[in-house]
Task: structure prediction
Amino acid sequence: MSLLLQYTLIFSSVLLLVALGGCFSEHSGIINIGLEGIMVIGALGGALVMKYLPDGTCGAAVLGLVVIGSVLFGMLYSLLLGVAAIRFKADQTLVGTAMNLLGTAAATVIVKAMNTAENASNVSSEISYIAARKKFLLVDGMEFNWFMILAVVILAVSYIVLYKTRFGLRLRSCGEHPQASDSVGINVYKMRYAGVLISGALGGLGGVVYITAGVSLWKFENGVAGFGFLALAVMIFGAWKPGRIALAAILFGFFRALSNVYTGLFGSLADGAAEITWLRNTFNFLGNVPGTIYNMLPYIISLIVLAFTSKSSAAPKAEGIPYDKGMR
Amino acid sequence: MKEKKSFFKLPVVQALLVSLFCILLGLIIGFIVLLIIKPAGAWEAITTILKNFWNYTRTNLQLKNLGNTLVKTAPLLMCSLSVLFAYKAGLFNIGAAGQYVVGAGACLYCALAWHLPWYVCLLAALAAGALLGVISGALKAYCNVNEVISCIMLNWISLYLINMLLTNVKETTSPYTFKLSTAGEQSFLPNLGMGDALFGKNQYTGLALIIAILAAVLIWFILGKTKLGYELKATGYNRSAARYCGMKEKKNLIMTMAISGALAGTGAALLYLTGFTEWMTTQSSVPAMGFNGIAAAFLGGLNPIGAIFSSFFIQHITDGGSFMTKIGFPSQISDLISSLIIYLCGFVMFIKLTFNGFLDRHSKSTGTNVNAEPAPVQEPAPDAQTAVADNKEGGNEE
Result:
């Protein structure tokens, strides 16, 4: 059982972080489809820090630097969306899609180039970080790590920032009715940049949490296997509110963990085999469903929820529409 | 002077210039990346990407590899038509990827499990794609669900669904589906002798190319010359206005997505029924074909005929990238360039405005104001954005 719990918690914290990022961006009025790409670049930032830190570095420093690396990479990358969508009023869906493709392509090119430079025969897109990863664990041999605690802290902070501070109120107003915000002296462009940058920071952090979840090396060719999009689903299912996003993250994280149990992705872990058999037997009452079903469920649930709630949607009203000062 | 100016103000010329500008900028950035990786081989690398099949010295091999590129251009063109058709009608069909996936699933299952003839498989793919489009369209029409979000969800649902379905017709030892040549020979798209005659005995080229190009012409005709096209575009610009004029706006919306989905679904059949490649049932992300379709659609200036050329170009540099590993560069460099090009396409409106401003400043014949000028027909972004804005304004003033 503990295996399932561990992975549910890991995946939930990834989804929570990234979905909160999306939540900030959308509340400021920018749809961030590019979360998937931001995650990949953030993961790259974190992985590079882990790769180049000397082995003897103390745990706290590793953790801190990895967080900073991924957050910085994520923020820088999210500026691509910010500049295009805010300054140049580009189509946000188009730019987001481009960023998803660009994220994986750029990360792969960078990692491959580095690997080849180190060793001419190494053409893989992998970075490994066996030693560094162990320092994130709270308990030896268990997949409970510091990132989970960080995710909970960020959840609390996000709630306070969005609903209890002047900044949060202003940010949300820019996503609802930017013209009104501008009329009372709020700089809509600045607020939207802030929203996008926060989403970049949290998306990047989510990326590094994802690639350190139970594995000690990452192949950047694979991107993050749709977790950015899953986070979008979490955000929608969570009705753009931090508290509900947390619940949605746990639910969807549980589905992901369950599907991994079924497809045997945990097979590499030493103590996994017996527990997987046990899990499969336990969940047999659901019928002999393939693991793929659990991968699909989050998306199906979100779609159904959307179908029933979109008439009076909780989505920010002005999201996706470039703000133009001259427009009525 | 006057003639020259009017030439540069033609919408077609402007669209072409902007696309070329995006390509050039994308290539320059790609070149800079190559320079950073390994300065010595950078020039060779970028020319290798651009040469693609000309890298071979023998004419026969050149033609054969041109054929290979064309085989993959056909589905890409269909996906880009799918995206641009929906975009012209005011919808962003990011679901072309998912519609492509169900199209692939439907045609392969018909071919490998039921051994149906090729035209049935093709129709199955078309129907599957259209059905997925209808779901997004209906959700938008009746439940007000944003089509971008529903399409993203459907992309992933269809990926997992098709992986599951095609596991029934896969090889026991590998994750790939059966080869069409062993398990479904009746389902090959006819190659009409094209490969033998034109492409150095490339057996994959054939009917697919012709279908894709006919589809482009058909979409051009529907959008520009028919009542249906007019209604769909009108609904996209402003739903309320369309309803006021007596159009059935919900039906139009669903129709747009159905046609769009059918195009992407057919695109998959055009690739998989040639036997060029098999489906991998363990793939964990949605195939890039649908997303590259977005690139091709925007690069082609959202014009069906332009899409033919832009699809070929995107596929050309993607295939050119496969030569990279041989000369010590990552092959993903061409993905990088094409995604940069999509990104730059987001700036089309800005580039056009700047360009027009430049033209106006340099020809003192008229004092026209750039902003006062009516937007060119081909210009994508302003149309959609003003449509949204119109909608919003209409809502506010009511």
